[in-house]
Each structure stands twice: as structure tokens, then as C-alpha cells.
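Q: Here's a chain of 438 amino acids. Please give me its 3D structure as C-alpha cells.
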Amino acid sequence: MPNRKRRILLPFLLLTTILIITATSCNMFNEPEGGNGGSLTLTVEDASCTEAWIKLNETNAELPASVKLYANDSLKQTLELTTADTLIYDEGLLPNRSYAYRAELIKPQKPTVKSQTVTAATLDTTSHNFTWETFTFGGANGSSDLRDVAIINENDIWAVGEIHTSWTDQWDSNGVWVQPYNAVHWNGQEWELRRIDGNGYPRRVVYAFGKNDVWFDGVIKWDGNEYTVHTNNFPLEPNGDGWYRYGMWGTSSSDFYIVGQHGNIAHYDGSGWEKIESGTELCFHDIYGYNERKFCIAAELFSGINTELYQIKDGNAILDDRTNIGVSSVSVYVLKKKLYVFGYLRLVRIEGKNGWEEISEPVNFDGYSKIRGVGYNDIVAVGSFGKIDHFNGANWEKRRMGTGGNNLADFSSVSIKNNTVCAVGRINNSAFIVIGRR
């Protein structure tokens, strides 16, 4: 009997030992690479034609630690990781390419922690090849000028300002004073002279959410058939301020902003207006947003006073920068990872990099009035002396537009939609428009 028990016990012990070894082995091979050195995760946040933004997240690693970032198996960067979440900016990429990114976290005397591989696809460049057509209006009985423009589509464009012609600004045969025009509308074939809301009061801002949803100076809406005035609760008019409006941006007719003189910002929610306090007396010249990133810019032109940049957050205007964007900066354009400020200087601020960078190519010293775009690879900026610059995602191309020779336009604003660009302003005493088609 004792020998029989021994024979039964030995196989049992052997089986138990095998099970323990197997369980230990399974745990060892199922453990994430790097063991207890932590884990590393990469996420592609955005990409332009020549740049990518990669979010790096680590867990359970002792910081600081050294991280190596690879793209297509080539070492791109080595950085010191000091926080669990880090945004990595990678530049110098080629347009219309795919880049496979991976990262390695290295700690002395600990296993290397490797991330998964993620792919960033860069955008292709757009074409600089526009065909341009120019138009002039007015020039008699007063100086004409166009101040803003909005493209709905290539056959539906609005521009506003003031236009004096040979048949305006005088008494007609019935003893009625003929007012100037304050808008022009492109119907795909020709420009139609218009008077917004039936009068010739000069208009400064136009913004279109759609064909039958066009706003003028922030308070007059065109629905395709008639104009309606929306001054209910307008925060300044009841006080007789009469302030000029210079910029407008929004996501819909029930969520938009308008900015103007004396540091004024107003928000419309579809039913009424609310004033947003800014704390500045400078004139706001422009506003633009990308999702929750909404910025407006205030300046006292030609005064030597620093421009002020504000971000609108949670219903408040918060000062972002008043010292690093120079003087006479008047326009702002916002993307997910970039912020442009144009005026006397051309500046860009890129997430993942520190501070502002000046765009030095092409060299211009005569100022910009407006920058607009439809993404990282299709941006246009206009200004004095007929200047129209286009960025295709990799480089800027400069043009000078006018009516010939040195007779160059002074552009006030520009709009871009799909393959159509429209810039407006003045040339001598006439209103001036140029349409570029690609």
C-alpha cells in the first residue's frame, strides 16, 4: 500500500508543477511589452501638407524619461518626457504621403517601452493656377469703396460698401433724392447693384450661412425674398452709440458674433443679443473661429499701440496676447492647430511650438487687411497695393492686381470657397472687385 500511494502522489505533484509553470509563462507573455516600465500610446491629432501633430500618452512610467519618435523607421526626434500627455509637432514632411509613427520610451536599467504604430496622411497641395477677372463700380458723385465680401458659391457672391454713380446722389425728376448703393450681388453672369434694406447707408460687413441666410452688419438678414432687421436687445444701439461693425463670424444664424469699435463684441443666439465685455477700448477689426477656438483682434491703426488678441471662452473675452503681435494687426484666421494673425506683419502660432513665427516669404512691407482660407492648404491674404497672396500648403505665391500698370487696388477683404476667390476694395475713386477661378 505505501508504494501505491507514492506512485499516485508523484504524477499529481508533476502535474501541479506543470500547471504552475504554464500559468506563469502565460502571464509573462501576455504582459505588455516593457513589463512594469509603463505603456506608451500614440494618436494622430492632425496633419497638414508638411506637418503632423502626434499625441503621446504614457501610463505607469517613472518620469522624466527619454522618448524616441520614429517615422517610417527613421528617427525623427528624441525628447525628454516630463508629463503623461505630450503633443509632438513634426515638420518638414512631404505633401500627399503617409508616415508610420512609432515611439520608444527608454529608462536606464529597465525594458524599453514601445508604442503601437499609427499612420499620419499629409494633405496634397492645392493649385496656384487661378484665372482672374476684374470689375469696377462707381467713381462719380463720390468716392466708392467695397469693404467686405462673402461667397455662397461661384454663382452667388455678395459684397458691401458704398457705391456712388453718375445717377446717384442727386434729385430725380420726381424730386426724390437718389441714394448711393451699398452692395453688389453676383448672379453668375453679372453684378447687380443693390441697396440693403432699401437705403443707401454704407455697409461694412457681410456674412453668409447660405443662399437664403445672408447677414449685413450683423443685424439685417436677407432670406432670399426680403430683408428683416434683428436689433432686438442689440446691446449698444439703444444708447445711441452707433458704433461701426468690422467683423462677423459664426456657425449659424442662431450662433454668431459681431465685433467693432470701442472694444465691442456682441453675440446673437437666434432670439436676441448679448454683449460680451472685453475690457479694451481698441477697435475690433476681425473675428474667426474653429470649433471652440474663437479669436478676435483689436488694434488702433497707425498709433504705435500694440495690437490685442482675445479668445472668446465661456461667454467671456479673455486677453491672449498684447505684446508679441506688433502694431496694426487687423485679421485673424484659425485652424485646429494653427493661428494666423495678419496686418503689418504676417504671423503664425503653431501648437507644439513656442511663440509666434513671422512668415517671411514672399517679402511684403505694405500691410494686409484680411486673411481667410478653407484649410491648411488653401489660404489667401489681401492688402494694399493690389496684394493677393495664396498659400497652397507648401509655399506662398504673390500677385499684384489692378487695372494695369501701377494702377493697383487697395483691398479691404477677401473670401474663398472651393475653387473661387473674391477680393474687394477700391482703386482710385472706384469700387473694385476681382474674382479668381481655379
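Q: Can you summarize the key feature?
A: The helical segments are 2-30.
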